[in-house]
């Protein structure tokens, strides 16, 4: 088994029980979320191990996060309860005003999660892992969180990074400069991104062109294309794996499902093509439910899906 | 800002929480509905003003209607509480026996709403509006309601009419004669209809042919085509705007969303083509939820939708 | 087994899912109700038989009523589908403005149920029964319904009557005159009433005094006292059985539970005291749920309750 | 009217309220199910009669089954309450790991339903029916249940059989040998199957080829093809009727809807083509809801669907 | 009619759908809340007028607040949309760890509501009111909000103040000093408090003793005693009105219900005793639901309650 | 910290969402339950450690149990996934026919949990614990499970036993003989029981008398008295701690809450009186929710409850 350690903010998500503007939604469903936590569980579902370095508040939602992740098999020993702040949360508005697109209303400014700092990154803990992962969100939430990522990456054996730019958290300029600094400094082994993000960081949104440029910074680059599927650059060639059309409930988290599954399967020894084909299944199932983690499939379940599709 | 005054019955809708015949539905969700109220809110969402002339019963549902509409920004000063009758209601059965089609079970006979009468139409109030709107439903519910529409139209500066024929409320013959009488008498500036209704009133269901015939009665004629989109006749030419395919929850109210949005945007200065393109977005979002008013988009939200579609 | 035939209107009940004024209730739960139907099922639960003479509309709610009652073991051969009217319905508002009291908003005027008429009362069908039951509600809903009750009573072997005065359906004067006419004409074997109703019909609300007066009209008189319990007059003496204190969800139907259970057990051979003690259990359980029929206990379940109380 | 008698196990179904693995589902919705019960209600919906021979446990779920089926118009006189066992149940997991496919978790081993035996098959009762139906599930659940089917078929005038192989109940080898024994012994008048099942019993999954082979065992053979539609073999020729694309909630029971509707309409005098076209509508509506019976259409409702599709 | 203007923060409340620690609650129900908004609606329900001076964020929850309050009849012209901050929210945990007590988890630090400032207090607007009301919460949320209250009080004709100390918002010392400063400076006409709060501000928790001390600062002092009822000091004497025992859903907002109803009825001309008796009914009904405003009774509904209690 | 190891069957509970007979319940809520698991979590909540020795099936419900318990902090290393059987489940019917009493419908015969056997009891694992606990349920479910308990007790340092007799699982005679054999053989340090159980095992249901007799078998004996409270025998004297009256949702699991909390606090050094007073709070909170584990309080929360009661 391979162990991944992810750094990021874990949040409590309140997903609208119905489609429409939040003002008209009366009921909300609670889920645990956060890009790196999603990666982590997708990673575990393929039979590997994962731990998270993060902070939560000393409140019901903080303990909720720890209990849920521990239940899902995550090593929570790196999650610190920060008595001086609160657990970040957000609300999900679905299919309004754009069908099958979700938007977020965050309550995370100054949260415990954003107080993640280099002191939370234990050298021994990082060295116990085979691979360290983080995302643009963690770079964006605070300077100390960003520094924690840089420290962890500097200690890591293998590095994975998902650009995950959220323009509510920082400006495009800030996103570009911080992410490019990280790519230049570490040339992470795995880079996961999408056309909107690559437009921001390298000025190119065409998937194939962007992949080629990004291959200068990373050995294996995954380009998420939403419902259309995904591409992966590796060893000088690009492989495209198409998506599946399903009834969409909430698209949030689909990219994390893809990224976490891909990393885990590749590190288990799958080739990039097979790893990508399988990962698409994880992101496909992910969009059929509210919540980002409950529908993540195991390797065996992915194979059941693929077998059915071949019929 | 432009002000529209609509005349019609506002009802409480009990929408089945699940698909299937009502006998097997255990839970119902309450919404405020009624064609003219739907028009009114779609109209307001584009930044204009709207008032409604109507009657409700002196019961919880009547006050529910007033409070909801007032909350949504409707001028409710023309809504009278009629102590001698009750607020009309209806139940919505969805996707049985026809997928993505809804059917209504009304409890509105003799309702306060149907007791609307010319005495409810204050000349000063009508004159405070730029445009007066009503529909075939209001003509159908009672003779006094019909007379109220005729009185309001006779006092109006600009007139808008949606044929909205409900064969449970009157016969095709009655519908034809009353609507044609109104069209002949007022030649409303705006006429909104669909192929089924034009088949009844002018014997023609082909959209383009019907539009040409109806252009004799109205300067601008909108032909709603359901999921396929809509057409508009204006100045001798016809423009078609296609619909969008989305997951349907309840189609009721989609036509009102389209009509109300179109009127409001056109009166704000949009040309008919742009107004129609935008209106289709409103009706598209409308079918994704139960309830007729909660998902109506603002102009800015419509533009967000259109921008996403162009990607 | 003994067979009871009841005459009355069966309605669909929409019970508020939460406490408070209906305007603020978003979800409603559907149940089948109606005093005589409640009696009928309470009667069957004690191991006897019951049929209902009634009309429902040719709509989903009408078939809902027939299917539900047939499922519960009611003989529905006397329920006519009336194609010319609709099935009556009502909404239940709970604990507002009075805690643990419910109020009804009816949509039953002109309903199929109110069109019950003497022609619906087949002589053979009535003669197949051991006992015929009806209530003040049936006298109130229409003249033809009242005449149907009189016809059925004139053909019956044993008669039972529950005063059940609903002042939204008729005036106190009308209630008094019609009910006294029935009592005088038939001197029913069983009379079920409460202090409010006896105040109206005989001007006496004191339970014991009222029972004595009413014993001039009926051999066995049951006085329902709500949460306090009930009394029964029989053979010159009065027996009081106290109520039980439980968490109240909806009190509607508790009196019918008591009456129907009492009749059934008495006719099975229980003495009036034991029949009353058992009946109180049925009305106690009834108030713990929304809906009037789902929590009605069998004789064996009543005994389980009583055994527990003795512990 | 024609009467069908079906033999099989009736179960209580707990359908996941949301999509995903059962471990993450918090709420479940109860329905009555079981292939033969589904057939029976589809049969009744077309205006014919149906009775079921089955056993249920002496528990709340057993009485639930009897009351529900009686309500739906099923003759339940052949359903025995078996005091020595329990009512079988199962859980439905939806769209995980395969979108729009459901999987079952049974609690039926040793259930009352599986204790069905030849002694439950009354000769007089079978002779009161025009046609007897059962399925591979009933052959699979126990030897006594299988013997009951053989006894009933030996007494029947007309026979119908649905292969319905569930590999969680028996092996493919056992399924093949038992079903072929039945086909050889009785050459049922109607045989309903699908490509997976025919692969098992005759080694052929190509629909047309399989139909030709199976026509040696049955006069009329229906081949269910899921969302693609269905085929029927009759009198040497094959007719294909395509399916309709709708929003899928739960596909379980669609085949029973098709089979039961087909049998009923054919026996009412429809030709095989028309009967198949209509039956596809029943299976189409069936997949739009959770539960197998609530959305089954009447003949008139099927015609309403077909009329709408022709528009 | 009398007009009250209240200053305070309006919040969106997410009330746990079930009892227990928030970590185990999966569903939340949205309500509009905030002490002064609760006062305002209780005030309106007695037939008077109310406006609120407040800030909300430029987000869905902000518009939700405005639409809801406008619907309820509140004058929202003094509510400013602050584009630089967000609408405050909170979660309600019920009956854990103390039965029938609720606790709050706030997300309001730096909220738009807390940015209320003296510049939001228009002299003309205040002068249009008969009475100005605020609470300790508004003093606590920020210095600018406190200054806004002082400014409004300095402009007011009649003043009302509810101590409402929330120790999560400020320390007991700060609460004491700020509230005493306000009491000393303005000697508000109405003071509403409870034993815990008077313990903090005057060191006395005995209701009668506290009332006497507080009568030095205010002409009419109301002492809320929770389920036990309430007392009022006026003209040298103290009147006690006992509470009613009901099934508790959520006690939050009960004190506001009492205070707002009392003020409104007293200003309508009720004497303090009658006003208090009526107000207790409002707080009693309030605890029977989740949400602080939906169950507030009108004067007529209060009388219906009292009439029933006298039976 | 002290570590307890418990042996028993962990089940999935489906709790009726409403009060009444299961046949009329449409929705069920899933919880993880089982007496020993309840003990374990109550134990952990007081700051100690707990592991469970048990078997679950290789199905979604089995993994559900493991994930939930791991999340709650239970050491799940002793829980074996048994591929040859299924996870046991049960349904809870509430308040019918006895208010505030629940009854269970089990599907656990032959379950993985009942296949617990001595080979599952690792000597090293037991020796890692300070105390071993089990109950009459585990003795009842199978001979191998009983043998596992005897083996674990023979290896344990300290022993705790809850009689927990479920007459649906074994006869009173069997219960008596097996439990007395265990008491005689091990004289467990802690014995938890109630009057019904002690009536069965020692023929005495009077709490005080029973405690005295049972003190011959165990040093500390806890007598659960339901809503009335509990008693504890220790060192020759009996202490009674009264219960609290609260709104009851489901009483199942209250005894386990009491027992687990008592053990944990006593082992932390509380004296028996204080430990009992605190434990009663845990059982009080437990009955306010559906589910047996979600409302269990920490020591600090118990103290918050007690502080409030003293007010």
TrEMBL record, chains A, B, C, D, E, F:
The keyword Nucleotide-binding does not apply. GO terms for molecular function: kinase activity. CDD domains: KdgK. Residues 3-297 form the Carbohydrate kinase PfkB domain. InterPro entries: KDG_KDGal_kin, PfkB_Carbo_kinase, PfkB_dom, Ribokinase-like. Keywords: Kinase, Transferase. Belongs to the carbohydrate kinase PfkB family. NCBIfam families: KDG_KDGal_kin. This is 2-keto-3-deoxygluconate kinase.
């Amino acid at each position: 088994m391979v162990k991944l350690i992810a750094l990021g903010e874990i949040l409590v998500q309140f997903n609208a029980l119905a489609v429409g503007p939040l003002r008209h939604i009366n009921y909300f469903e609670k889920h645990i979320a956060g890009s790196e936590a999603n990666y982590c569980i997708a990673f575990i579902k393929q039979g590997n191990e994962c731990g998270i370095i993060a902070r939560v508040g000393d409140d019901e939602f903080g303990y909720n996060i720890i209990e849920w992740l521990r239940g899902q098999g995550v090593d929570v020993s790196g999650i610190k309860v920060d008595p001086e702040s609160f657990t970040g949360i957000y609300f999900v508005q679905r299919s309004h005003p754009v069908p099958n697109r979700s938007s977020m209303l965050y309550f995370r400014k100054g949260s415990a999660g954003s107080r993640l700092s280099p002191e939370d990154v234990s050298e021994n803990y990082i060295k116990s892992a085979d691979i360290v992962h983080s995302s643009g969100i963690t770079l964006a939430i605070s300077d100390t969180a960003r520094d924690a990522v840089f420290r962890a990456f500097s200690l890591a054996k293998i590095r994975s990074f998902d650009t995950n730019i959220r323009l509510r958290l920082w400006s495009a300029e800030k996103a570009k400069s911080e992410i490019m600094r990280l790519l230049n400094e570490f040339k992470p082994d795995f880079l996961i991104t999408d056309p909107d993000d690559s437009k921001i960081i390298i000025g190119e949104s065409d998937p194939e062109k962007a992949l080629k440029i990004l291959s200068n910074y990373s050995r294996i680059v995954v380009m998420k294309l939403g419902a259309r599927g995904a591409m992966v650059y590796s060893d000088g060639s690009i492989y495209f794996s198409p998506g599946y059309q399903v009834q969409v409930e909430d698209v949030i988290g689909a990219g994390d499902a893809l990224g976490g599954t891909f990393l885990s399967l590749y590190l288990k020894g799958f080739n990039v093509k097979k790893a990508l084909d399988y990962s698409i299944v994880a992101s496909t199932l992910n969009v059929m439910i509210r919540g980002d983690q409950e529908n993540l499939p195991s390797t065996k379940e992915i194979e059941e899906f693929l077998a059915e599709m071949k019929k």
